Q: What sequence folds into this?
C-alpha cells in the first residue's frame, strides 16, 4: 500500500461523501437525477461543464500527445475556445426550447423538433455508440492512474475493475448533483496539480520555459511546429474545426445544458471558459519536459508520461495527489456519461417500446442501466490498445454526424423532414464505421490529391456524405406546414 | 439584427487562418515558441471578444426591457 494509493482512496471517499450529501433534500426523480431539477446557477453549471471538459483525456492524453507528437497536440487548446464562442449563441436557444418542453436528453430535442420518435431512437443509438468509447477512455485513464500510483502492484486490469465498481456505486447514488459538487473539488485539485507541476517542472529541470523549449527543439528539431505533411497546418485547421463542431454534439453536454436555471448562464460561461482552457498549456509543459526527462515511452505508453515524470520528480505522496485529481477527472465525466446514457436509453428507446411505462419505471430503468453499460465498457477497455486521443477522435466522429440535423432544426420553422435527418445521420455513421475499420485517411482514398487535401481530417468525409444524403432526401420530402398549424405552434 | 455579434467570428478566423503563417518556433513570445504563443493570444482574445458581445447584449436587452415597459406589447427575444 503506497502513500499514493492512500491519498487516492481518501479522495474517492470524499467524492462519495459529497455525492451522498448532495442527495439530501431532493427526491430522485429522473429529472432530478439527470438534470438536477433545472435549478443550477452559473457557478454550478460552469463547474459541471468545465468539469466535463477536463477529463482524463486532457490530463494524460494532452501531455501524452505533447510528449509523443509535439505541436499537433496544440489543437486541443484551439477547439475549446472556438466552441465556446459558438456556445454563446447556440446554447441559449437549445435551453429555451428544452425548458418549456421539459426535455431530459439530447435525443428528446430531436424528437421534439422533428416530431419523430424514430429519429429519437437513431440519435439515442448514436449517442450510446459514441459514449462507450468515451467511457472506455475514462476507465483506461483511471486504470493507468491507479496502477501507476500503486507502483505497479495493482495491475491495470484490477485497477479498472475496482474503479468501475466504485464509479457505478457513486453514480447510482447521487446522479448529476453529486457530479457538480465533485466537479468543484476536482477543479480545485486539477488546477493545483496541473498548474503546479506544469509551472515547476520546466523551472526545475531546465531553468525556465524558453530554456525547456530550446532544449526540446535541439533534441528533436521540428517538435514544436507542425510538419509539412501528415499533421500539417491543413490537418490542424480541419481537425480543430471538426472537433469544435462535435464539441456540443456530445449528449452529456446537452444534459449539462438542461440543468441551468437561466440562459444567461451560458453567455457568462462563454466569456470565461476560453481562459480556463489555458490550463491545458501547463499540461503541455509537463509533456514537453517529460519528453526529455523520461524518454522512451512509445506509442500508447505516451499517456503514462505525466505520471512518470511526477513520480520521478516528487515521489509517491505527490503522485497520490495527482492521482487523486486524475481519479476525479475520470469520475465526473464518467458519471455524466453513465447518467446520460442511462437516461437516453430509458427515455428514448425503452419508453418508445413501452409507452405506458410510468415515470418511476423509466427512472429505475435508467439507473439500472448504469452497471450494465459500465460492464460493457470494462470489457472493451481490457481488450483495447489505442491511445486515449484515438479513442476520443472516434467517438467524436460519431456524434459530429448529428450536427447538420441540429443546425437545420434551430430556426422557427422545420426546414427539412425527419426522414432526411435520419438518412443523413445513418449515411454519415456508416461512413465513419467504414473509415475507422479500414483505417482510411484522405491519403488512402484520394492518393492523387495534392498534399494539402490529403492532410485534411478524414472525419470531414463522413460529414460531407451526411450533408449530401440529407440534402438529396430533403429535396425529395419537402416539409409542408399549413399556416394554422404554425400559429398554434408558435404563439 | 445585432451586427456586433459577428465579432464572434474573429477569434476563429484569426486563430486558424494564421496557422500557416504562425507555424514557426521563433521568435519566442513570453517564453513560448511562436506557434504556441499565437494560439494562446487568440484564446485570450476569444474571451475578450465574448465579453464585449456580452456587454453590448446586456445593454441592448436593458433598452428593450425599458422600451417594452413603456408599451404593453409582448416582446420577443432574438
A:
Amino acid at each position: 500500500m503506497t502513500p499514493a494509493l492512500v491519498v487516492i482512496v481518501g479522495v474517492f471517499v470524499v467524492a462519495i461523501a459529497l455525492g451522498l450529501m448532495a442527495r439530501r433534500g431532493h427526491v430522485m426523480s429522473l429529472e432530478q437525477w439527470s438534470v438536477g431539477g433545472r435549478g443550477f446557477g452559473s457557478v454550478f453549471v460552469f463547474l459541471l461543464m468545465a468539469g466535463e471538459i477536463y477529463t482524463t483525456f486532457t490530463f494524460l492524453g494532452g501531455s501524452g500527445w505533447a510528449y509523443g507528437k509535439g505541436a499537433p497536440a496544440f489543437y486541443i487548446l484551439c477547439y475549446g475556445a472556438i466552441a465556446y464562442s459558438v456556445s454563446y449563441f447556440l446554447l441559449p436557444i437549445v435551453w429555451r426550447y428544452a425548458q418549456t418542453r421539459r426535455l431530459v436528453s439530447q435525443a428528446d430535442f430531436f424528437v421534439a423538433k422533428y416530431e419523430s420518435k424514430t429519429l429519437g431512437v437513431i440519435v439515442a443509438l448514436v449517442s450510446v455508440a459514441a459514449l462507450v468509447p468515451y467511457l472506455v477512455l475514462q476507465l483506461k485513464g483511471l486504470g493507468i492512474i491507479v496502477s501507476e500510483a500503486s507502483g505497479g502492484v495493482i495491475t491495470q486490469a484490477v485497477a479498472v475493475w475496482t474503479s468501475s465498481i466504485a464509479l457505478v456505486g457513486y453514480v447510482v447514488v447521487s446522479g448529476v448533483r453529486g457530479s457538480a459538487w465533485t466537479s468543484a473539488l476536482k477543479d480545485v485539485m486539477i488546477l493545483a496539480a496541473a498548474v503546479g507541476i506544469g509551472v515547476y517542472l520546466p523551472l526545475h529541470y531546465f531553468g525556465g520555459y524558453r530554456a525547456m523549449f530550446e532544449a526540446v527543439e535541439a533534441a528533436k528539431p521540428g517538435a514544436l511546429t507542425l510538419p509539412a505533411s501528415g499533421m500539417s497546418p491543413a490537418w490542424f485547421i480541419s481537425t480543430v474545426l471538426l472537433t469544435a463542431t462535435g464539441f456540443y454534439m456530445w449528449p452529456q453536454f446537452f444534459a449539462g445544458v438542461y440543468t441551468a436555471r437561466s440562459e444567461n448562464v451560458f453567455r457568462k460561461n462563454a466569456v470565461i471558459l476560453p481562459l480556463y482552457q489555458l490550463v491545458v498549456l501547463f499540461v503541455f509543459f509537463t509533456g514537453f519536459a517529460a519528453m526529455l526527462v523520461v524518454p522512451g515511452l512509445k506509442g500508447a505508453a505516451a499517456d503514462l508520461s505525466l505520471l512518470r515524470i511526477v513520480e520521478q520528480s516528487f515521489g509517491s505522496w505527490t503522485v497520490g495527489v495527482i492521482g487523486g485529481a486524475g481519479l476525479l477527472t475520470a469520475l465526473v465525466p464518467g458519471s455524466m456519461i453513465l447518467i446520460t446514457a442511462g437516461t437516453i436509453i430509458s427515455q428514448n428507446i425503452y419508453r418508445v417500446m413501452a409507452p405506458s411505462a410510468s415515470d418511476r419505471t423509466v427512472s429505475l430503468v435508467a439507473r439500472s442501466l448504469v452497471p450494465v453499460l459500465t460492464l460493457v465498457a470494462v470489457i472493451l477497455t481490457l481488450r483495447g490498445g489505442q491511445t486515449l486521443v484515438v479513442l476520443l477522435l472516434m467517438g467524436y466522429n460519431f456524434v459530429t454526424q448529428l450536427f447538420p440535423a441540429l443546425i437545420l432544426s434551430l430556426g422557427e420553422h422545420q426546414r427539412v423532414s425527419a426522414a432526411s435527418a435520419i438518412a443523413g445521420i445513418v449515411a454519415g455513421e456508416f461512413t465513419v464505421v467504414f473509415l475507422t475499420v479500414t483505417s482510411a485517411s484522405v491519403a488512402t482514398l484520394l492518393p492523387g490529391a495534392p498534399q494539402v487535401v490529403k492532410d485534411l481530417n478524414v472525419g470531414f468525409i463522413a460529414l460531407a456524405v451526411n450533408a449530401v444524403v440529407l440534402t438529396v432526401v430533403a429535396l425529395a420530402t419537402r416539409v409542408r406546414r399549413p399556416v394554422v398549424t404554425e400559429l398554434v405552434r408558435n404563439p | 439584427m445585432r451586427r456586433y455579434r459577428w465579432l464572434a467570428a474573429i477569434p476563429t478566423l484569426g486563430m486558424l487562418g494564421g496557422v500557416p503563417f504562425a507555424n514557426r518556433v521563433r521568435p519566442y513570445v513570453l517564453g513560448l515558441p511562436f506557434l504556441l504563443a499565437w494560439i494562446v493570444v487568440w484564446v485570450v482574445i476569444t474571451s475578450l471578444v465574448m465579453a464585449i458581445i456580452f456587454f453590448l447584449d446586456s445593454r441592448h436587452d436593458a433598452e428593450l426591457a425599458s422600451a417594452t415597459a413603456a408599451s404593453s406589447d409582448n416582446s420577443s427575444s432574438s
In short: The two ends of chain B are 8 Å apart (CA to CA). DSSP finds three helices and no strands in chain B. Chain B touches chain A at residues 5, 8-9, 11-12, 15-16, 19-20, 23-25, 28, 31-33, 35-36, 39-40, 42-44, 46-47, 49-51, 53-54, 57 (CB under 8 Å). The first helix of chain B runs from residue 9 to 17.
